[in-house]
Structures are given as C-alpha cells and as structure tokens.
Amino acid sequence: MSRVRHLPMRTCVLCGDKNPKQEMLRIVRTDINSVAIDEHGSMNGRGCYVCLDATGFDPGKINDKIRRALKLRMEVPADFIEQLIARFNSG
Description:
- This protein is of the alpha+beta class and 91 residues long.
- The chain is built from two helices and five strands; from the N terminus they run E-E-E-E-E-H-H.
- The chain has one domain (9-90): Hypothetical Cytosolic Protein, Chain: A (2-Layer Sandwich).
- The longest helix is centred in the C-terminal third of the chain and has 13 residues, at 78-90.
C-alpha cells in the first residue's frame, strides 16, 4: 500500500485561492526593505505567495495586497509590479 504524500498548500495574497506551493510564486521582503521574487523558495525574509493565474488585478490592488502581506512601510516599486504582471502574462 503506497502512502499519499503531503503537499504543502499556500494561499495567494491576490485572489485567496489555495494551491500547492510548487505552483505558486514567492515574493520576499528583503532586509533592505525592498521586495524580490524568490525563484527557489529559499531566500530569507518575510514572504507571501502569488498564483500565476492572477491576471485580472490592477497594479494598485497588487501594490496594496503585497504591501499588507509583507508589512511594508513603503510602496512596492512600480518596476517590480510591472515585472510581476509580465510574469503573469507569460505563464
């Protein structure tokens, strides 16, 4: 009898859907109070997850939800949001 392996689930901060961790994109607040995309899931810092099919959000809502999840005092840089939207559109 084979065992069913546990899949870690994460919640998207934009849409609220729960998906397996491997299907999500992790965003991290770095120690210099900026944000970065964590490609391998191993960066230090406070993180949040975004699913890659969250295409219908405007940049203002993306900024607010990521700021709240990462407890940032500043705005998320506009170029980071553009990079994130391009990532949504690519796949």
